[in-house]
Structures are given as structure tokens and as C-alpha cells.
């Protein structure tokens, strides 16, 4: 995963600040969830995190958030408190203290998806 982040940085797709934050976030996610870095969902989530961090810092966050039905599914999940705690730890690692709710809804959904990927991996 770090190689992918390095590639995005070299290609000027993400900033150094987003790269550094994602490396910290990777360590936090890896500590809590056992997910193979080659997982498509894992790579997508971390790439989105880096791009979202740059958008937030440049005041260019997405204008429309996640569909309310999907958000409700996350809120109703029995693991919601753990998802939210990891989400906050990732935001802290990224040094993102003020994220528009529209952008944050997608970031939360990515952490939620990673929880499910980890659960599936444990069941195999």
C-alpha cells in the first residue's frame, strides 16, 4: 500500500501532507484490522482518504454526501461505535480536525467497509 501512496505522490496526485498522514493511518488501521494490503477495498479506501484530505485542505470537498440509506445502515451496525472510533483515529492521524459532513460521510463509509473486509477475512 505504501508503494501505491508513493506512486500517487510522485505523480502529483496527492500532496506530501496527504501521503504522510496516510502512512500514519495505515499503521492505525493495520493495528486494528487484519486486511491484506492487496485488497481492492483497502487500496480504494486509502486512496480515497489521501485524495479527500487534499480536497478538504484545499476547500474543495465534495458537495453531496453519501446516500442517507447507506448512512443509516452504518449507524445501525452493531460495530458502529468501533467504526466511529477508528474513523476518528484515522482523521487524527491525517490531522483533519474539520471535515465537511458530506466528505466525512464517505470517509466513514470506507472505514465501515474495511471493518467488513476484516470480518470476512476472519471467517475464511
Q: Your description of this structure?
A:
This protein has helices at residues 2-10, 16-32, 40-57, 68-76, 80-93, 101-123. The chain is globular. Helix content is 73%, strand content 0%. The model has no long low-confidence stretch (mean pLDDT 94). By secondary structure, the protein is an all-alpha fold. It contains 6 helices and no strands. Helix 1 (2-10) runs antiparallel to helix 2 (16-32), helix 2 (16-32) crosses helix 3 (40-57) and helix 2 packs antiparallel against helix 5.
Helical residues, percent: over 70%
> How widely separated are the two ends?
22 Å
Total count of strands = 0
The 3D shape can be described as globular
Query: Please, how many helices?
Result: 6
* C-alpha Rg (nearest Å): 14 Å
Please render the helix and strand layout as text:
Blueprint: H1 2-10, H2 16-32, H3 40-57, H4 68-76, H5 80-93, H6 101-123
Helix pairs in contact: 1-2, 2-3, 2-5, 3-6, 5-6
Short account of what is shown:
The protein is mainly alpha-helical and 124 residues long.
Question: Which descriptors would you attach to this protein?
Answer:
single chain, 124 residues, mainly alpha, 73% helix
Amino acid at each position: 500500500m505504501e508503494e501505491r501512496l508513493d506512486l500517487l505522490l510522485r505523480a502529483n496526485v496527492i500532496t506530501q501532507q496527504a501521503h504522510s498522514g496516510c502512512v500514519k493511518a495505515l499503521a492505525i488501521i493495520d493495528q486494528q484490522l487484519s486486511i491484506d494490503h492487496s485488497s481492492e477495498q483497502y487500496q480504494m479506501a486509502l486512496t480515497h482518504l489521501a485524495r479527500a484530505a487534499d480536497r478538504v485542505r484545499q476547500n474543495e470537498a465534495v458537495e453531496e454526501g453519501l446516500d442517507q440509506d447507506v448512512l443509516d445502515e452504518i449507524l445501525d451496525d452493531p460495530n458502529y461505535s468501533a467504526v466511529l472510533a477508528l474513523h476518528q483515529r484515522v482523521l487524527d492521524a491525517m490531522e483533519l480536525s474539520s471535515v465537511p459532513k458530506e466528505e466525512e460521510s464517505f470517509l466513514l463509509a470506507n472505514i465501515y467497509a474495511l471493518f467488513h473486509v476484516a470480518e470476512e477475512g476472519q471467517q475464511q
